[in-house]
Here is the input.
Amino acid sequence: MTRSYPNTRLRRTRASGWSRAMHRETVLTAADLIWPIFVTGGKGVEDPVDSLPGVSRWSVDGIAARAKEAVELGIPCIALFPNTQPDLRSEDGAEAYNPDNLMCRAIRAVRDACGNDIGILTDVALDPYTTHGQDGLLNDAGYVENDDTVAVLVDQALNQAEAGADIIAPSDMMDGRVKAIRMALEMGGHHNIQIMSYAAKYASAFYGPFRDAVGSGDRLVGDKKTYQMDPANGSEALAEVALDIAEGADSVMVKPGLAYLDIIWRVKERFDVPVFAYQVSGEYAMIEAGAAAGVGDRDGLLMEKLIAFKRAGCSGVLTYHAPVAARILNG
Ligand code: PBG
Here is the structure.
């Protein structure tokens, strides 16, 4: 059957609001949003991140308040990232497995404030804890050692699990880390803790404001190209995803978001696993900067980008716009 004009006029179903609503192919709700939040030390602290207008680092009490806000808005999950104080950063990032580090304190505060009404996703990688800003351990040549790093990431993941994390999200891109973390979680009796792997994470220019927020940017020596992916590669992303699923990931992430919609689509077509996109800090900042420069209406710009992730096949999106988007969606 071939469609032809005038039997088919595609504008018919677009002619009124009710009809557009009825024919809408994808929906975005607050339940699709994961809200990344930055944790800092002290009490009663709100410390704005200059390169992310509208985003702040919050002390642990403020994190608990943000978590309550998320619950009220219908946002199901928050993602925590610590800005570790300088004297606790070290060559080996040992603060990552201190049971009383910022991350663990924030996890416990959120649990106290919200019980099980919210999911807590925690980032596994060493960059917020190292003096050199790399995600793993460096050898004498300055190369990030894979297997030695994985051993430490396991300790970091268990530390977060014991503090009460619901979803462990390794963002480090070491080979074999999902398998090692999954085995350790099983051995530790944490059978229901999920792993959302940053399966296809690219060496991207869009992470700048995040690195400001966690304080790793100025410290970073070199780049992350020996472990994060080349933006030119697509098939390799499928190989990363296949391995992470085989190793025990419950869901996978593609990061950054908008420049990688083709990857999201290919992953969704190929695998029956939930896919999430991380709309990263640079993407958020560009929307805010664009709106401030008069490119368009901020809410319109951000909602159009978020629905694109759903259309491409995502189960949900990590976005700094989560509370703004939820307010828009909730009317
Ligand atoms: C680090 C990490 C990064 C982000 C999340 N986890 C930055 C990096 O790899 O340098 C970026 C998130 C963002 O830009 O919003 N393991």
